[in-house]
Description:
Layout: E1 2-4, H1 12-17, H2 37-50, E2 54-58, H3 64-76, E3 81-86, H4 101-110, E4 117-122, H5 126-133, E5 137-142, H6 150-158, E6 162-171, H7 187-194, E7 198-201, E8 217-221, H8 224-228, H9 231-236, H10 247-260, H11 263-284
Parallel strand pairs: 1-7, 2-3, 2-5, 3-4, 5-6
Antiparallel strand pairs: 6-8, 7-8
Helix pairs in contact: 2-3, 3-4, 10-11
The chain binds S-adenosylmethionine (SAM).
Amino acid sequence: MINLNAIPLDYEPRRKILPKLPAFVTAKGQREPEMSEFESAFLCGTLKQFRPKKILEVGVAGGATTAIILQALEDCGEPYEMHSIDVAENFYRDKTKPSGFMAAFAKEKIFDNLRGTHEFHLGKFLPQIIDDIGSDIDFVILDTLHSMPGEGLDFLAVLPYLKIGSVVVLHDVSLNQARAQNFNSHATTALFGAVTANKFLNFVPDNGNRPYAYPNIAAFQVTEQTVECIENVFLTMVLRWAYRPSDGEIKLYLNHYLRYYPPELCKIFAEAFKMNLYNMVIISNG
Ligand SMILES: C[S@@+](CC[C@H](N)C(=O)[O-])C[C@H]1O[C@@H](n2cnc3c(N)ncnc32)[C@H](O)[C@@H]1O
């Protein structure tokens, strides 16, 4: 099922917290967060609508989005537990700063006393930390590499830890349309299309400047069918991969999947890796 324009957008948390965060801009003019105002408003609107208690963010970068999420959770006025994972210990756009430095600043200098708890898990892949975080997660934000296998790897890894009714927000669901060089950025597009779930899309409000309204952010709610039909997500793994995960990373994810999924689905994943490896080698050999 797809729900169009069903999330009431909430622009407030970003407007409140962003001016208080440290100014950051790269030589190329890149700013924090990596979401547009509309995308933050969709994310915060989803948080306000579903009022989760246990939140997991995968892909932190500078951490301005983490701070915006914390503000939205504070505005909800209820206790919560939030975890933010990034495989990089240092911010990929400025390695002199830790990943999440903006949210660390907000926690220390802006929020007096959080109503909930927040923990960073840096330098680790999701399967290395998820047992410590535990189950009953009811909200996930996936925003990592955008190209295959990308976010699909982490969704499959986290699904066994999600409550039925939990919500997954995907960033960059139309990034592959943004610029010619983004043609490979369809990992969340594939995941959003393949997953069986209760799906949410808000079209971008028309300000007269945009030739189309399809957004770059979306969400879905996990149902019993999400688990029953998970083979459709495994089957997206046979799309061509845009980067080569290390053997160690693949082993980590495959061993994790073997704990929760039937052997035939794990076999498809292993074959997808082998096929991609073979074809990447052929391509790189010209
Ligand atoms: C696009 S940025 C995140 C932007 C951030 N969510 C925002 O809105 O500003 C992607 C981040 O994901 C991290 N990353 C990439 N692959 C990852 C993985 N498998 N697990 C955790 N983090 C990952 C990168 O180190 C990078 O910091």
